[in-house]
Amino acid sequence: MNSNKTAPAAPETEQIRIKTVPHAKAIKWPMIWYLLMGQIYTLLPWKKTAWTCAGFPVELLWGFDIFPLHPENMATVAAAQKQSQRLIEHAESMGYSRDLCTYCKTNIGAVDTNIKTTLGGIAKPDIITCTNTICDTHWKWFQIQAEKLKVPFFMFDCPKIVSGTDERTIEGYINYMVDQFYDFFEFVKKHTGKELNVTSMMKASDDSELMSVIWREIFEYRKCAPSPYSSAETSASFFPLVVMPGKKIGIKFFEKIRDDIKKRAETGEGTLSSGTERFRLLFEGIPFWYRMRFMYDLARYRAVVTYEPYTFSFAPPKPFGKNYSESLRDVARVMMDLPYSYNLEKRIVYFEQAIRDYRIDGVILHENLSCRPSSTGMIDLKNAIQEDLGVPVLIIQCDMNDPRAYSEAQMKTRIEGFIELMERNRT
Amino acid sequence: MKTIAYFDATHDLPEEIIMAAGFLPYKILGDVHTSNEPADRYLQAFFCPAARSFLTEAMARSGDWEGIILAQGCNATNRHFDIWKRHVTTPFLHWFNGPSRDDALAHRFMKTEIWRLINALERKFCAGITDEKIASAIRESNVLKRRLQSLSALRGTKDIPNREYFEALVRSMQLPKADAIEEVNAAIARAEQRGPFPSNKRKALLTGSDVTYGEFMDLIDEAGFRIVRDDISEGERYYATLIPEEGEPVDALARYYLTIPKPATKVGIRKRIDYLEQALVQSGLDTVISQNIKFCEAFAYDSVLVNNELKAKGHRVLHVEREFTPGPDNQLMNRLEAFSEML
């Protein structure tokens, strides 16, 4: 592409930058709290920990006073600390295929090399628990590690709500899920000696919903033009939503961020320098954790990611029921129907609505070599968005945790071509 | 006979219900000789090539079928349903969500799913699927499974090429059961007339991803190995156990499908390892060929632990990753031959 022809697209000389919100750095406090509590729970013999995964209702674990450790999150830490490649290669040297999930391989490498927590390591838990709602990888990976570490393993078998599933069938699925909740409670009791404190769980659920509400509020402000907050920041700040839903320190952090954004929205201030926002993007998929600069670099093209389903996914409305048994049914429904794992029909409707709501100029779909489930249907999704709304869509193939999949020059060329396409689409 | 085709990542779909509804159950296995280009318009190249081939076959042949059922197996079947729904023309498309667990809760859920399938078929085709019809289908399935067990038992003593055994299995999943039984009987008769197990071949157990084309079985043969035991779906998983013939038939089907030799797509890697170990000991084998089709995640995850455990027990294990191709794969052949020489 001839960059001279795209005046608004790539003004390399202009220093357009993402302006972080004042409290952005306060993320360190929830992170320190999380790492510290994880260590305390690991060290004290009467405290218990569990490995768990995205899509698992952590509130259940709080109800048992069990501390959740997240191998996926620690894998992202490893990537941000530039450790993931060597850990992935270590796992591959153990025999794991190049084609397998790089979160999994980062974790396998981290455990096998006993890497420090600050670099992405993780302690041995008392139990390992997961779901298969997002992918098979979660439970395959956790099953392997449970065998290796000789730790009891529990998997929630979540039926799949495929396109066209009727409500009656979903109710049947929920029955199966609720049966598994009771089985899970027995499992936890057997292996940790702990019993569910229903009041604690319900409180955790309420607080968790409060945290999600604030996150959704933040997303409401992101509808403003210029966008006061971008994916460059949410990719880091959504961390408490995943690992500590409902914890006060996380809620306080989100309140501060929300207030920062609210101020910006009220004064018409964007995350890019005044008047420079030109393209509003939707980014689907897990970011490149080892190359977070990607999101910042988009600013050079006056582009800002104003909506990403990935981080929004962790704050689905959690309409917990009036009582315990109703709540379990609601949790089951949320577990099976996370925005990240919506079926294709629902995903198209969801994306098209977001594109309208956030006034999106272009969509980037990350075809993630590590996440085949989320990449399934992307071609149909692209076609539907382009045909229904006339919004350009770019599919980029890469990987969330493996720097070997990222090519700087190719990425630049593709992004520049896409910016040009959006520019033409405007005119 | 009218056909209902099904996409089953392993052996999860109770085909006896399709039989009881008066249809021929046809397992979609794709065609390795046909380009996946039609499916590649909707599924990227880093998805399981066998699953892409199944979609290609369905797009081309769905007009011959009365309907299609997709059974929950791996990531591929789960998410691909939506793509089939958009791009495969069929009057009946059903999602069968068999459980991944195998305990009492899973058993109850499996029964619910079987009933949902029965209701869907009855609604669409006005097929009266009675207990008697299901029981009769179960008996017929069991006859076939017993005959396949007999054929399988000859693999260790007679000269039965890998492909011959494999093709008997494929036909068992695609022909009317009565025809399949006849074919397997003929295969048994032929095998019994054959010479003893060839002295220039080595006996091996095959594990890993499902095999959907005969050329791969030829390749193993050419490298000097005869597969006398396996745990693949187009193999022992299909017939190793029989469906209980007593009691309520839907209950029997649920029990059966949750207790067949475990694929990697189901929770319970320990049971999978135990089955392999038992098969090796029973048959006096010590050689294992573990293979993984490109992008088949479930089996790729299992392979390290499974193979390490088998090696620790003194078995000799070769693990290979294979492409989806009927052509001669020289790299693969080199590895198999080197393994043979090493032994």
Outline:
Chain A is of the alpha/beta class and 427 residues long.
Layout of SSEs?
The complex is a heterodimer of chains A (427) and B (343).
Chain A: H1 28-43, E1 48-51, H2 58-63, E2 66-69, H3 71-80, H4 84-93, H5 102-113, E3 127-131, H6 136-149, E4 153-156, H7 167-192, H8 198-221, H9 231-237, H10 239-243, H11 248-267, E5 279-284, H12 293-297, E6 303-307, H13 309-312, H14 324-336, H15 344-357, E7 362-368, H16 372-375, H17 378-389, E8 393-398, H18 408-426
Parallel strand pairs in A: 1-2, 1-3, 3-4, 5-6, 5-7, 7-8
Helix pairs in contact in A: 3-5, 4-5, 7-14, 8-11, 15-17
Chain B: E1 3-8, H1 15-20, E2 24-27, H2 37-40, H3 49-61, E3 67-71, H4 75-87, E4 93-96, H5 104-125, H6 131-154, H7 162-174, H8 177-193, E5 202-208, H9 214-222, E6 225-230, H10 236-239, H11 249-259, H12 269-282, E7 287-293, H13 297-312, E8 316-322, H14 330-342
Parallel strand pairs in B: 1-2, 1-3, 3-4, 5-6, 5-7, 7-8
Helix pairs in contact in B: 3-4, 5-11, 6-7, 6-8, 7-8, 7-9, 12-13
Structural class of chain A: alpha/beta
Let me know the average pLDDT of chain B.
96
How many individual β-strands of chain B?
8
- How would you sum up the major sheet of chain B? 4 strands, parallel
Poorly predicted regions of chain B: none
**Gyration radius of chain B, rounded:** 19 Å
Helical stretch count of chain B?
14
Form type of chain B:
globular
| Beta content of chain A | 5-15%
Order of helices and strands of chain A: HEHEHHHEHEHHHHHEHEHHHEHHEH
**Proper CATH architecture of the domain at 26-197 in chain A:** 3-Layer(aba) Sandwich
Residue windows where pLDDT falls under 50 for at least 5 positions of chain A: 1-7
How would you sum up the global shape of chain A?
A: globular
Which strand order do you get reading across the main beta sheet of chain A?
Answer: 2-1-3-4
Give the assembly state of these chains.
Answer: heterodimer
- Strand content range of chain B: 5-15%
Overall helicity of chain A: 40-55%
